[in-house]
Amino acid sequence: MRHYAVLRLLLAGFFLYMAWPSIPYAVTPIELAFWGGWLIFFLLIVGANIASLLQMIQPPIMEQQKERQRQTYNY
């Protein structure tokens, strides 16, 4: 399920592409804090997805594949 990590990276890149023109216009401290927090969050998202792609961490539960176990009935 590596394609989910790639899709999340593409979505994060798209959000950065849309937000980047607005960042230089931040003047007040609250605007700068917002964009600083937004960029830190962006870096966390990108780092987590790259780690998932490189298989440095376990994939999310939804993306893990279960091995089917044979059920035996002992009566």
Key descriptive features of the protein:
2 helices, mainly alpha, elongated
Structure description:
The chain is an all-alpha fold and 75 residues long. The protein has one domain (2-58). Helix content is 57%, strand content 0%. The chain has helices spanning 2-19, 29-53. Helix 1 (2-19) runs antiparallel to helix 2. The chain is elongated and about 75 Å long. The chain starts with a helix and ends in a 22-residue tail after the last helix. The model has no long low-confidence stretch (mean pLDDT 85). Keywords: Membrane, Transmembrane, Transmembrane helix. The chain crosses the membrane at residues 34-54.
Give a brief rundown of this model.
The protein has 75 residues and is mainly α. Helices cover 57% and strands 0% of the residues.
Helices, strands, pairings?
Elements: H1 2-19, H2 29-53
Uncertain spans, ≥5 residues at pLDDT below 50?
A: none
The chain-level mean pLDDT equals 85
Largest sheet: none
> What is the terminal separation in angstroms?
39 Å
The helix content is: 55-70%
- Rounded to an integer, what's the Rg over CA atoms? 20 Å
Number of domains: 1
Strand fraction equals under 5%
Structural class: mainly alpha
Could you spell the SSE succession in H and E letters? HH
Q: Any idea what the shape is?
A: elongated
Specify the number of helices: 2
* Secondary structure tally: strands: 0
Transmembrane segments: 34-54
Keywords: Membrane, Transmembrane, Transmembrane helix
